[in-house]
Write a structure and sequence with these properties.
alpha/beta
Length: 1186
């Protein structure tokens, strides 16, 4: 069945030769449309595009893999319709190497292809997160130490002003934060200079012309226009028949105060307006005709109005212009020092990484930008020659999730587009309402700049809006639209939520009940009240609710896996909800993103490593002895401590082992220490991850952990540590000591990997996840919890604030007077930080609500819920649909947005609002307890002899009586390579030879100590095989020509230099001149020679396992070196470089391998294999097998 696209979707699919911005609402099918656009471009009859001519950039590796898979499936589907289409066949081949990638992966490929242009060693690697964190602090410590040694006055003044505390932790944090911000800019040095320039104003005229003052004017106007609307609203009520007319004079005075702000031009005008503010007292309400309710309403309006004006004064206008300029003057040299430190650190850090052949994720973007751009005479970035190559290659640049791009990513992708050549070929898709990665320095304003300037009509820069939502029921969409048309505004959320931004129903659902959006206000004192309310609601849903099955499209009862609980952060929420739901008997999964190092299994294992490295550590040694490894009880530890109270504990343990009286304790210590001594001996020559695996296996600790409650999770955590050790060995740090230090530094700098993920998509559990993790996903029932949690505004309270466009906001510190006051720039940035943070929170809320397909439930704690709801009654009188900017920007929880919006709810909106108190929660628990008692009573009196359900009885009997029909294959390998079978058969023929061999211990020898040597054994064999594969058998070679051919292979990178050196051309010539070589050359001339032919063959299980019964098949796979066809059949040939003295050795060892090759060829081609041959380069002869 063909898909019916909407008119807008069809435009997205069809339009070409222009820049296109697709504003795709949640659930609008943007990925499906994007894939269809790509497929259409690949399969159109006129001028089809090749997939390697497209650059498709996605936000995550998972999204890139999914998109590549979708395109591959679509190509295969088209191929099934047109099986002979050569263009499609080519696309099916190219799709595996297509540039469908993340921005970082694309940048990495650019660097690998052009490393020489930036003088980067081609053997570079990407540093591991923890290693880079440690390296940063090491380098920064060196930079600061250098300045301390110099003792410059400006630097020491800077330290006195902003370091604080006894160490440089705050100073380091400040420099690193500014460094991270700077790296998201195409020209980070120019941005740092702008940070300095922001403190340059020396006159009021320069101040009024500055960017910070323009921000002040914009915000003051927004607040004062809100205040004026409130005054007008109050006056309208005063002038009603029963209105409080006596308040009118005060409100008219308020309007004059507000008007002074609105008419102000420069800073001094605003300052004077703030200073002259005098509020008139409200006249006494003695009139019997005036409504008390309306009088109270006007009072509340006036308080809100006064709060707005007061807040503006306190934020911006507490100082006159002379003091403001003096503060900027004080900050200027401090900002210069800070910019210098960041620049020096940046250079030192880059040099340190280069010295270790390492780059990080920021380098990927910065280096790619250096390769793809250069500066013109005006200092602007223009595409380089390298970029021109990509411009020729890519016919279109496609960017998914464009709202999450930053400035440097924009510059990189623009440089490889055709824009500089007047060719518009950038396709961008995203939704600014879902831009929730501000903490990764994304810049949604890039999206909005194009959203506002691109034409919706036909043109070179065109915008297309996708409004229809194909995910959710109408009840969900109506609720979301009702709430966000009041909450999301241009000043706060980045976009006005009007009819163009609203969601429209596109999904077709079967009618069902209980789909209204529920808002649950939990006003209870009970511990974990919200989690208990959610657990109660989940149980109710499991009993009564039906949802649409994704596969069949019909209604079915709810399963646990249909329900997701979303929270703003997992910290402090995930564990609580998981614990309460588990307590209530609800299966639940909550993926933790923190607490890895605090888990018991990891903590003990790390202490064991610490003791192996240095036994003279009291706390780690105590932890090990009292754990599984030592088995020493607390009482026994006390005995040891009491025996040697004056000695360090580690020494007391050592002495007790030789002198102690309790034999049981001594035996435990002896076993533990002997085991540790054995591992200590292995440390010098054993890889760290192998050491960990040996500890887990030899001590039984791995099995012990797996057997504990939650064993699967514990085992996954331990496996994760082994992988971290493996990754550590590829870093610049080596050895057990450095690994322990590495882990301790990670803990110090709060790098937490989170527990290993064990989530099973198919498991029937309620999932708890953060809203960020849910982005791009959908669930039948979504419970958004934590609406009463206060927003995290810590970033706005820092000593130094950083803003993407305004730079760094410093405190004005006067060291002589020992005074400190926020500079005007800091106060401006502080307000911008709060507003942008709130805008992000609003978009996070939108993402959470739009995950729901059929039902949305919103929950949160709210003390005094009834009173709070009454306070928001005044919102109903507001004429404007949007809530005022003042109200929207002065919130501390999600409830502060939702409750005013919900106050306007009518019966038209499918929203049910309920207050849940202690009484209701307690009643639910009592009911649950009674049900449990009755169930227990019923089970105790159950007559086990009776059959109550015959059908169920039979099903249970069948299930418990089931026997696995393939027991003979259990524990047996069912897939082999030919080499494995050859080795198996050869060893079985040798009497006394074991099929299992102990792994060889290879000492870890540093590279500089290793002697250079010619390739031997398997490596030499690989070299000969590769040369024989690449050699052109249709031509004759002399010795010199053959040497040139091998050298050419090496020069073109088709074989390595080492391979080329170990190939003896005399050996190859000997083969070419032998009868077999001549036969191959004749076959090659007729195109009847095939080389390196892979195959998969099915053989009877009995051929490999003689004791096996039945008709099971074993899969055998391999690669045939060469075969050729002659008139009377096929000839299969295998090259061998084994060191042998007689041909019988090769026949005995490889006859079975050639048998499998012959069987595979006969099965694949349907032709007779007449000869099986081995050519020995060692013996310089061909051997025919019969």
């Amino acid at each position: 069945m063909s898909v019916r696209w909407t008119e807008e979707q069809q435009k997205v699919i069809d339009l070409r030769e222009r820049n296109i911005l697709v504003s795709a609402a949640a659930g609008s099918g943007k990925t499906a449309v994007l894939v269809e656009r790509i497929i259409t471009m690949l399969t159109r009859s006129d001028d089809p595009v090749s997939v390697d001519e497209l650059l498709i950039v996605t936000f995550t590796e998972a999204a890139a893999a999914e998109m590549k898979e979708r395109i591959r499936d679509a190509i295969e589907k088209k191929l099934a319709e047109c099986p002979g289409d050569e263009h499609l066949l080519l696309q099916a081949t190219l799709i595996h190497s297509a540039r469908i990638t993340t921005i970082h992966s694309f940048c990495l490929s650019v660097i690998k292809e052009h490393f020489h242009t930036i003088e980067l060693d081609p053997a570079f690697r990407v540093g591991e997160e923890g290693e880079l964190k440690l390296l940063k602090h090491d380098v920064l410590g060196e930079v600061l130490e250098s300045h301390y040694s110099e003792g410059g006055k400006e630097f020491l003044d800077f330290v006195d002003s902003y370091a604080g505390g006894r160490d440089d932790k705050k100073l380091e944090e400040l420099i690193l934060n500014l460094y991270e911000f700077s790296r998201s800019h195409p020209d980070y040095r120019r941005w740092l200079q702008k940070c300095v320039d922001n403190y340059q104003p020396e006159t009021e005229q320069e101040l009024n012309a500055s960017e910070m003052f323009q921000v002040i004017r914009r915000n003051v106007r927004r607040y004062m226009e809100d205040a004026m609307r409130l005054a007008e609203q109050g006056l309208a009520v005063c002038r009603e028949a029963d209105g409080p007319y006596m308040y009118e004079e005060a409100l008219m005075n308020d309007k004059q105060i507000i008007q002074r702000y609105l008419e102000a031009e420069g800073y001094t005008d605003y300052y004077l307006a703030a200073e002259k503010t005098e509020w008139m007292r409200l006249a006494a309400n003695r009139s019997k005709t005036a409504s008390e309710e309306k009088a109270s309403f006007v009072k509340r309006i006036r308080e809100e109005l006064k709060d707005i004006v007061k807040d503006v004064k306190e934020q911006y206008f507490t100082q006159d212009v002379e003091n403001v300029l003096e503060d900027l003057r004080l900050c200027r040299p401090m900002m210069e020092i800070l910019a210098l430190l960041v620049d020096e650190f940046s250079e030192a850090f880059e040099e340190k990484k280069k010295s270790q052949n390492m780059i990080d994720f920021d380098d990927m973007e910065q280096y790619a930008l250096r390769i793809l751009t250069e500066k013109d005479e005006k200092g602007n970035l223009v595409p380089s020659k390298a970029a021109a190559e990509y411009q020729e290659q890519f016919r279109e640049i496609m960017i998914d999730e464009y709202q999450d791009s930053n400035l440097i990513q924009e510059a990189i992708l623009t440089s490889v587009s055709g824009i500089s050549r007047g060719r518009y070929n950038i396709f961008m898709v995203g939704d600014v309402k879902q831009s929730i990665y501000r903490f990764r320095l994304s810049r949604p304003e890039l999206f909005m700049e194009k959203f506002d300037t691109y034409d919706r009509e036909d043109g070179k820069k065109q915008r297309i809006d996708l409004h229809k939502n194909f995910r959710s029921r109408s009840e969900v969409l109506d609720s979301v639209n009702f709430l966000f048309e009041q909450l999301m505004t241009k000043p706060l959320g980045g976009i006005t939520y009007d009819e163009k931004a609203a969601l429209y129903v596109g999904a077709d659902y079967e009618t069902s009940a209980e789909n209204e959006t529920e808002v649950l206000l939990v006003d209870a004192e009970m511990e974990h009240a919200e989690a208990r309310a959610v657990a109660r609601r989940v149980k109710d849903l499991m009993c009564t609710k039906q949802v649409t099955d994704k596969k069949t499209g019909v209604l079915r009862p709810v399963k646990y896996s249909d329900i997701v609980i979303l929270t703003r952060s997992m910290k402090g929420w995930g564990d609580v909800f998981a614990s309460v739901l588990t307590e209530e008997g609800i299966p639940v999964y909550a993926g933790s993103t923190e607490g890895y190092f605090e888990t018991r299994e990891i903590g003990v294992l790390l202490d064991y490593l610490r003791v192996l490295n240095n036994r003279q550590q009291d706390i780690p040694l105590t932890a090990v002895l009292s754990s599984f490894f030592g088995g020493v009880t607390c009482e026994e530890l006390a005995v040891i401590r009491s025996a040697y109270p004056q000695e360090p504990f580690w020494r007391g343990v050592t002495q007790y082992l030789s002198e102690g009286e309790n034999e049981t304790i001594k035996e435990k210590l002896r076993v533990c220490f002997e085991q540790m001594d054995w591992f200590c001996e292995k440390i010098p020559y054993t890889a760290l991850h192998d050491l960990l695996l040996q500890i887990l296996n030899d001590t039984g600790y791995g099995d012990y952990m797996a057997a504990l409650p939650g064993g699967e999770q514990r085992k996954a955590n331990v496996d994760m540590l082994v992988e971290k050790a493996r990754a550590f060995e590829s870093t610049s740090y080596k050895g057990l000591f450095h690994f322990i230090r590495y882990i301790e530094q990670l803990q110090k700098y709060q790098v937490d990997y989170g527990e290993a993920s064990l989530e099973d998509e198919q498991s029937d559990t309620v999932r708890i996840m953060s809203i960020h993790k849910s982005k791009g996903l959908e669930f039948p029932i979504v419970i958004v919890a934590g609406m009463g949690k206060r927003f995290n505004q810590q970033d706005a309270r820092r000593n130094v604030l950083i803003h993407a466009s305004l730079g760094a906001g410093l405190e004005a510190v006067d060291l002589e007077r020992r005074t400190k006051i926020p500079s005007l720039l800091k106060r401006v940035i502080q307000r911008e930080e709060v507003l942008e943070s709130l805008g992000e929170e609003l978009r996070v809320l939108y993402v959470a609500f739009t995950r729901a397909k059929e039902k949305l439930i919103i929950t949160g704690m709210l003390k005094g819920a009834v009173q709070k709801l009454e306070e928001y009654d005044m919102v109903r009188r507001q004429k404007e649909k949007e809530l005022s900017f003042g109200r929207l920007s002065h919130v501390t929880t999600y409830w502060d947005w939702l409750l005013p919006a919900l106050a306007r709810k009518t019966e038209k909106q499918p929203i049910i609002l309920r207050i849940i108190d202690d009484e209701e929660l307690a009643a639910g628990e009592i009911e649950e307890e009674l049900t449990g008692v009755l169930t227990r009573k019923m089970l105790e009196e159950w007559n086990t002899e009776s059959v109550y359900d015959e059908k169920m009885h039979q099903e249970l009997a069948e299930q418990f009586g089931y026997q696995y029909p393939y027991e003979q294959v259990e524990g047996r390998k069912m897939k082999f390579t030919v080499s494995e079978l050859k080795k198996r058969a050869y060893l079985a023929e040798e009497p006394g030879e074991l099929l299992y061999r102990e792994p060889e211990v290879v000492p870890l020898i540093p590279q500089f100590m290793q002697e250079s040597h010619e390739l031997t054994g398997a490596s030499r064999g690989s070299a000969y095989h590769r040369v024989m594969e690449l050699l052109d058998f249709t031509r004759e070679y002399s010795s010199g020509e053959l040497k040139e051919a091998v050298a050419d292979m090496a020069e073109k990178g088709r074989i390595s230099g080492e391979m080329a050196e170990c190939v003896r051309t005399a050996d190859i010539l000997g083969f070419l001149e032998c009868p077999c070589g001549r036969r191959m050359q004749r076959a090659a001339g007729k195109n009847l020679l095939w080389k390196e032919q892979p195959f998969v063959l099915g053989v009877d299980m009995g051929d490999v396992y003689p004791d096996a019964e039945g008709e099971e098949m074993i899969v055998v796979q391999g690669i045939i070196d060469a075969f050729f066809e002659e008139e009377d059949g096929l000839v299969v040939l295998d090259y061998k470089t084994d060191k042998v003295t007689k041909e019988e050795q090769l026949v005995e060892k490889y006859h079975m391998q050639l048998d499998y090759y012959a069987r595979a060829l006969s099965q694949i081609t349907g032709k007779h294999v007449k000869e099986k041959m081995i050519y020995s380069f060692e013996l310089q002869k061909e051997i025919i097998l019969y």
